[in-house]
Amino acid sequence: MTIHLDSALEVSSHTDPGMVRSHNEDSIASDADKGLVVLADGMGGYNAGEVASGMATTVITTELQQMLEQHPPFLVDEQTGQTLAQKMLREQIAKANTSIYQAAQSQPQYAGMGTTLVVAMFHDNKVTVAHIGDSRLYRLRGEVFSQVTKDHSLLQEQIDSGLITPEQAKTSQNKNLVTRALGIDPAVEPEIHDYDTQVGDIYLLCSDGLCDMVSDEDIGMAVQTLGANLKLCCQQLVQMANDNGGRDNISVILIKVVRDYAAPRGFVSKFIGWFK
Amino acid sequence: MAKLILSMDGLVLKEIQLTKERTTIGRKPHNDIQIDNLAVSGEHAVLVTILADSFLEDLGSTNGTMVNGQPVKKHFMQNNDVIELGKYKLKYVADAAPAGAAKADFEKTMILRPGAMRPAPAPAAAPAAPAAAAPAGAPAAAPAAPKPSDTQINSAPVAMPAPPPAPAQKMGMLQILSGASAGRELELTKPLTTLGKPGVQVAVLTRRPQGYFVTHVEGANQPSVNGKSIGTAPHALKDHDLIELAGVKMEFFYKV
Description:
The complex is a heterodimer of chains A (276) and B (256). Chain A is 33% helix and 25% strand. Chain A has helices spanning 48-70, 84-106, 154-160, 166-169, 208-211, 216-225, 230-243, 267-273; strands at 9-16, 26-31, 36-43, 114-123, 126-132, 136-141, 144-147, 177-178, 191-196, 202-206, 250-257. In chain A, strand 4 (114-123) and strand 5 (126-132) form a beta hairpin. In chain A, helix 1 runs antiparallel to helix 2. The model of chain A has no long low-confidence stretch (mean pLDDT 89). Chain B contains 5 helices and 22 strands. Chain B has helices at 98-106, 114-117, 121-137, 141-144, 148-159; strands at 3-8, 11-17, 22-26, 33-34, 45-50, 53-58, 65-67, 70-72, 74-76, 82-85, 88-93, 110-111, 172-176, 185-187, 192-197, 201-208, 211-219, 224-225, 228-229, 235-236, 241-245, 248-254. In chain B, the strands form 4 sheets. Chain B has a 6-stranded antiparallel beta sheet, with no helix packed on it. The interface between A and B is large, with 44 and 40 residues.
């Protein structure tokens, strides 16, 4: 049984090399119909960063698209008690990690490459979010714009341990040090959580090129004021980052929940589901 | 390395690094900088770059080449010179400090291996305890006279090169000329200001370093500036432009 979410979700994305870098090491992919969005920010010398991020988005998107054709993601796995979505994400992230790690080991020009990752999978009025590193997911619900993911970075660890305040973190030099990345080690532990969604929610996935350049307040204001036009909002966010210097690649994906998308479980709702 | 910033009507289209000794400009596709506009000749001009210096030469173009408003045949480029080809402008920005490149490199995201991290937390944890205790014990004294122990931690943000102070930008204002709130004036301090009625017609005024822009957001009709519809692209606003949106007229001007 396949699901179609393109009438429930509105998705728009934009990626830009910024004002300083000559090439774009970010990679994004989205499939509104399957309710799947992926964003990766690659790192590593020469062009290896974009190889790593490209591999991550391609492996995860294509594999998950195939799996979603066969398995509804909202079912609960009997062994672990987690949703199937979590299990699928965990497996595919592990697979992408292995592919990148092996490529980095076998080919000298790719040595040391890796990528951050944030994936959101929408199903059954929920979103399953997996992330590694400092690419983020934000949510606008009503008037409240908040960061959902917590960076795997030195800075975040410093904040958590009370060494510095979030205010001091804004001017810290250590913004670029991540403590987890995909493809660096043989195994990686992604952070995966489920969240309930509401109609009207807007989700923003972004690379650090946006949130290092533009304050959370300004990002929130842009998403709130331009939420009616997601494409323009994406362009505006990238433009704001570039106006502030655009020192890194900037990628944004916006997802708006337009209507309810509860999983069709009973016979009647399945029947209605065919006509949606 | 010097660069050229290509723009039209105040909108930046492209940045071109002058990496080559000869950078050609023209309408035909083989040029290094192709400007597909009939006012630009097939082979219009060339920039010859020798070390840090660039020279512009007009290649006998039909409509000529202007630098800072003066027609030129040959010109030794100075920082912030503006080359004009028809409606297109190319701003020449000379070599930035080489430190800039090194800094950009430093900002690249890097992985911090857990193994490499281990020795660090131990010494860092010691100053953390008094730092955390200080505000609790003497909250009034803490901000005024930071203890020597937490200056160590604070030194990182202080050492950080401060972002260059934003150049003083003229403040834009909007005056409503018709409708229910006619006469009202609005200071455009925010980076984004929305106008109109949600669901009917909305436009956004964006404040950017190069000035103010108005962009259509939603609704069947697009706003008009000085009587002309602006379409869906951002439109640069000039002093005393007249904006019309959802039947309401308003004037944009710079505060003096």
